[in-house]
Structure formats: C-alpha cells, structure tokens
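Workshop exercise sheet. Pairs work together: one partner reads the sequence aloud, the other fills in the structure field after running the prediction. Swap roles for the next sheet.
Pair: D.N. / O.F.
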Amino acid sequence: MFSPDSTGKAAWEVLGLIFIIYQSILIPFRICFNEVAKGFVLGIENTIDVSFMLDILVQFNCGFYAKGNLINGRKDIVINYVMGWFSIDLVASFPYGWVFSDGTDPETGEVQANAAMARTP
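Structure field:
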C-alpha cells in the first residue's frame, strides 16, 4: 500500500507528468509529419506506455484523502478509483499502437509487404 504523501508517490507523479508533456509534444509532431518512432526513441515510448499501464496498478494500491481523513482500506480505494479516474486512465493508457498496427515496421518505418493486402477489403 502506498501513502499518497510519500516521496516515492510524489516522484512517480512527477515522472508521469514529464511523460505526459513528452507525449503532448511528440504525438502531434508524429501525426503532422507522419514520423514513426525508431530505435532508442521507440524504446523510450514503449517504456512510457508501460509506465502508464503500471500507474493503474499504483492507483489501485494508493490511499487517498476523503474529508481530511486518510483512507487506506483496499475496498474503499478500489471503489473510489473505479468510480473516479479508472475509466479515463484505462482508455488513456491502452496501448493502441501495440494492438492496432498500421502495417509499418516500428524499427524501420517502412510499410510491410503484407500490410497493403491486410487493409484491402
């Protein structure tokens, strides 16, 4: 169980903020210029995706404050998170690029030979 006031939790939140800022700059850039992450950058972006998925587990294991009282009960934490941010976090952290491929090789950025056939009706 993580305390919402711990230094580790604060560091995790700051790291998440840095990742969000990174993605808020790079996602529009990639869409606008049709760029594909390759090599080291692809590794960083996969790490970011995994960290967002891990954040869901962290949130399920982190206490919260309600009316000035620290709540650490597992059931209360789950109910609070599911009724609040869980659905938003789930949609935001879903690895769409891993599940829905556009047919490009992530290492080279080249369209794979069978990708055109896969998109043909």
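Discussion prompt: The beta strands are 64-66, 69-71. What would you look at next?
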